[in-house]
């Protein structure tokens, strides 16, 4: 540990030690912006306590990445790289987190991880023009961490999703990630079946929402982590803890992340942005209030919807097709409208038939893979190592895990919403266009 360090108290993990160079990076303006970016976006409209930030989550991910590195015996260099990746993995998350992500990706073709890579390297602006007087001449983050012997290339690679063959079958056959030809287990600390990112957001989001489903036995999970054939596995003694993680993930997605009111208010904000003249390519430098303030200042439809969101005047549910009620024929038909652009076109078609503005129609459909195959949210191929040195998928050992893997985390296949005064017209138009 370096001489310069601080102990930061975190309500989830307790005392978190931050030493150099992580402390200097934590104090950079790019990281400080995350204090004003809510972890659950507009989730606080449904769960009043959910006012925690991406800054807290980044600190927690850094902490857990360090604990995992120690547990599996990483070298000091590798441990430093993975801790730095944990700290900065969300450095370019846009305002209200995942709420605005889809719009930005559609407009720029770049997700927040690709943006993070460019920001760390100094290839894109790191601050708004108004703050040039504060940050002029500041070196890019890559230079700072390179001075401490940490490879910025490795950190950026760890932040990016691996271009690898998924699943235990590939693991059993000895195949390795195309992006990480060796030491793939290091990458799994950030993106893996049991990684620092998801463990922190599950327990943190559960803590702040008050939802009891996110309890995870962190100590047992990390304590039973091992490396086997270039992959992170869990010893058999940690099986129950791994099952608990899967339970927490499944229930948090259905009860919090895919809560219908949360989805409606999220898409209302998207409607406000889509109706505005804002150049979304630069909002990775904004915080939540800056985005909301600019939308309100714009006037017209963007302002009306943004002010409705702020005052919790939400669009009303027009129609919900629950998963158990959806026929295969309907699911196949709905799959034609998955993806941002196709869904937006469907909204426009409904609005035209209903004789209203497109900003007054919300359509939400799960991803095609979930819609058609009931595939669970990823990261389910946890590998268990038995005392004889054999590795098996958790889903082969645990009926509970197997059931959770196919559990429908959405609970619904179609959600349509609009302002109260347009409900009848939108319902009529939707029935015609979707053969409901």
Summarize the structure.
GO terms for molecular function: dGTPase activity. Residues 54-168 form the HD domain. This protein is an alpha+beta fold and 436 residues long.
Q: What does this protein structure show overall?
A:
- By secondary structure, the chain is an alpha+beta fold.
- The chain has 2 domains: 5-259 and 378-405, Hypothetical protein af1432 (Orthogonal Bundle), CATH 1.10.3210; 315-366 and 410-436, Ribosomal Protein S8, Chain: A, domain 1.
- 50% of the residues lie in helices and 10% in strands.
- It is built from 23 helices and 9 strands.
- The strands form 3 sheets. A 4-stranded mixed β-sheet has the order 3-4-7-8. The chain has a 3-stranded antiparallel β-sheet with strand order 5-9-6, sandwiched between helices.
- A hairpin with a 2-residue loop joins strand 3 and strand 4 (231-235).
- Helix 4 (76-88) packs across helix 9.
- The longest helix has 19 residues, at 239-257.
- The radius of gyration is 22 Å and the shape is globular.
- Percent of residues in helices comes to 40-55%
Strand tally is: 9
Strand order of the largest sheet: 3-4-7-8
Instruction: Specify Rg, calculated over alpha carbons.
Output: 22 Å
* End-to-end CA span: 62 Å
Task: Supply the number of structural domains.
Answer: 2
Enumerate how many helices there are, as a single number. 23
Strand content: 5-15%
CATH class of the largest domain: Mainly Alpha
Which secondary-structure class do the elements indicate? alpha+beta
As residue ranges, the low-confidence spans are 164-181
Shape, please?
Answer: globular
CATH architectural grouping of the largest domain:
Orthogonal Bundle
């Amino acid at each position: 540990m370096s001489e310069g360090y601080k102990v930061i108290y975190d309500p989830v993990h307790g005392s978190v030690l931050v030493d150099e160079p992580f402390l200097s990076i934590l104090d950079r303006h790019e990281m400080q912006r995350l204090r004003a970016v809510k972890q659950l976006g507009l989730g606080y409209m449904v769960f009043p306590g959910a006012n925690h930030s991406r800054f807290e989550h980044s600190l927690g991910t850094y902490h857990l990445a360090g604990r995992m590195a120690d547990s599996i015996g990483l070298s000091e260099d590798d441990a430093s790289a993975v801790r730095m990746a944990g700290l900065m993995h969300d450095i370019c998350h846009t305002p209200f987190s995942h709420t605005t992500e889809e719009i930005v990706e559609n407009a720029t073709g770049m997700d927040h991880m690709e943006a993070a890579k460019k920001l760390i390297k100094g290839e894109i602006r790191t601050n708004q023009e108004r703050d040039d007087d504060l940050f002029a001449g500041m070196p890019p983050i890559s230079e700072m961490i390179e001075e401490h012997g940490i490879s910025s290339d490795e950190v950026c690679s760890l932040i990016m999703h691996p271009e690898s063959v998924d699943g235990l079958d590939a693991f059993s056959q000895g195949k390795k990630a195309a992006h990480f030809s060796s030491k793939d287990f290091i990458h799994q600390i950030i993106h893996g079946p049991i990684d620092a990112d998801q463990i922190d957001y599950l327990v943190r989001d559960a803590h702040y929402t008050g939802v009891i489903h996110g309890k995870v036995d962190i100590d047992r999970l990390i304590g039973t982590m091992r490396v086997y054939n270039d992959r992170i596995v869990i010893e058999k003694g940690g099986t129950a803890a791994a099952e608990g993680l899967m339970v927490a993930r499944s229930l948090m997605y259905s009860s919090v992340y895919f809560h219908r009111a949360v989805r409606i208010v999220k898409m209302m904000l998207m409607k406000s942005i889509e109706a505005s003249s804002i150049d979304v390519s630069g909002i990775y430098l904004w915080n939540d209030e800056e985005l909301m303030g600019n939308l309100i200042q714009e006037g017209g439809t963007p302002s009306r919807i943004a002010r409705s969101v702020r005052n919790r005047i939400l669009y009303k549910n027009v129609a919900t097709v629950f998963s158990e009620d959806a026929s295969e024929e309907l699911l196949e038909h709905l799959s034609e409208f998955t993806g941002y652009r196709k869904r937006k076109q469907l909204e426009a078609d409904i609005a035209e038939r209903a004789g209203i503005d497109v900003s007054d129609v919300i359509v939400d459909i799960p991803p095609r893979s979930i819609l058609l195959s009931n595939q669970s949210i990823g990261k389910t191929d946890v590998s268990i190592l038995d005392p004889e040195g054999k590795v098996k998928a958790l889903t082969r050992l645990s009926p509970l895990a197997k059931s959770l893997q196919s559990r429908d985390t959405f609970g619904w296949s179609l959600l349509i919403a609009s302002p109260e005064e347009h409900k009848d017209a939108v319902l009529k138009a939707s029935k015609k266009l979707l053969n409901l």
